Each structure stands twice: as C-alpha cells, then as structure tokens.
Amino acid sequence: MGATASKLPKDQLSEYQELTFLTKQEILLAHKRFNELLEREDRQQIGGSRVPMNKILTLPELKSNPFRRRICQVFSTSDLRDGSLSFEDFLDLLSAFSDSATLEIKSHYAFRIFDFDDDGTLDTGDLEKLVNCLTGEMDNTRLTSEEMKQLINNILEESDIDKDGTVNLSEFQHVISRSPDFVSSFKIVL
Question: pTM here?
Fold first, then answer.
C-alpha cells in the first residue's frame, strides 16, 4: 500500500548521501517519516511537496525543543517564509543535527537559529529571545528585567571579543569551541 510512492531512486539516494552527513539508512528513514507527514495526494510527487511547519512540529524529536519554530524557519527554503519544509530542507535539518556533522556546521546553524532577526549578529534582542526560549515565558520562569540585563551583559562580556555590543558568527564559534558538550547536545535523531 503506497510502497512505490515512498521509494527513493538509487541515484537520488547516492546524491543525498554525498551532500549530507546522513547514512543511507538515515536518509531512507527520513524519507519515510517525511512521507508520513505529507497529505496523501502529495505523496506521489515528494520532490516538489512541502510539509507545513505545524505538521513538522508534531514530530516527537522537535515537539519539546524550545527552538522548534525557529529551526523550521531557518531550514525552510519556502519563498513564503512560512517554515514549511521540502524533503531536501528536511534532510538539511537532519544533517546539521546529526552526530556526523562537524562543529563548524553545527555552530553555523545554531548561530542562525539564535539570530532571530536574521541580521547576522546576536544582539541584545536576540539574546533576550534566546534566554526566554530556554527559561520559558511563564511568569514563574521568566527572568526579571534586571536579571535579564545582567545575564545579557555577562554573555556579551564573555563572547563579544570586539566589544561592539553584539556577537558575530566567529565570536559565537569561538565560544562554542570551548564548550565540549555542544556537539553532542546539538542533535536530533529520528
């Protein structure tokens, strides 16, 4: 039942293996999971189909991630900027979060996810959103404005090497390189 629709051509499978940090088995599983998220009528032409962000967010692997919406936005190539993912977008996401991805790739995408305004730097607005994602935005978990200001000042003191009031990609990567658990914690496994 639908086995032919979810078959991935061998040449395409090989190409995906070359272009990602994923194994053949991981790509086939990703294809299966992506197919399950598609509407039944879209399963025939998986190449051009997109899964809406609200369906991607139902994946157990993303459901509890505080950055789930931002992850979809960063990996989506949709012209509508709606966070929907094509199969290739989905593979890019899984590849960047795979165990085999390099520190450079992981830190690049982490930076993009934390750069909420997409301006190429982490400024106080981005850092505040990042902290709120991590602590939750409930009244009992939210930091006071004084605590938030102190925390952001501490982050900038530690990370902002050129003292311009923001953290750029290379400064972020420098900080990440000193965090041994980053690579192992920045992952999503299907």
Answer: 0.91
